[in-house]
């Protein structure tokens, strides 16, 4: 599946984020976070939802979640 927004394309089959013709480097968790947020764009996603989806329910610190969110923001400018 490919999702298009602004100058970006998120290709879930190839697990790549593109800005125009360039591939934007992302870690697997950041990619998964972007994918999850895009797929659930119709409603507010809570912290517990993110942890269950990205970390499979493992206990993670608020700092880890914030770090991944900041990296996702950085990846899409």
Task: Explain what this protein looks like in three dimensions.
- By secondary structure, this protein is α+β, with helices and mostly antiparallel strands.
- It is built from three helices and four strands, in the order E-E-E-E-H-H-H.
- A hairpin with a 2-residue loop joins strand 3 (16-19) and strand 4.
- The longest helix is centred in the C-terminal third of the chain and has 14 residues, at 62-75.
- The protein has a four-stranded antiparallel beta sheet, covered by helices on one side.
- Helices cover 44% and strands 19% of the residues.
- It is globular and about 35 Å long.
- Helix 1 crosses helix 3 (62-75).
Compact description:
This protein is α+β, with helices and mostly antiparallel strands and 77 residues long.
Please provide the count of β strands. 4
Which percent range describes the beta-strand content? 15-25%
Oligomeric state of the chains?
single chain
Low-confidence stretches: none
Shape: globular
C-alpha Rg (nearest Å): 12 Å
Task: Tell me the number of helical segments per DSSP (H or I, 4 or more residues long).
Answer: 3
Largest pleated sheet: 4 strands, antiparallel
Helix content: 40-55%
Q: How would you classify the helix and strand content by structural class?
A: alpha+beta
Strand neighbour order, sheet with most strands: 1-2-3-4
Q: Order of SSEs, N→C?
A: EEEEHHH
Distance between the termini: 22 Å
Mean pLDDT: 94
């Amino acid at each position: 599946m490919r999702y298009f927004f602004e100058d970006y394309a998120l290709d879930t089959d190839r697990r790549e984020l593109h800005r125009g013709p360039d591939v934007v480097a992302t870690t697997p968790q950041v990619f998964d976070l972007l994918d999850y947020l895009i797929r659930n764009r119709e409603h507010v996603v809570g912290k517990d939802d993110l942890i269950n989806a990205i970390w499979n329910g493992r206990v993670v610190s608020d700092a880890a979640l914030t770090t991944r969110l900041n990296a996702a923001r950085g990846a899409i400018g």
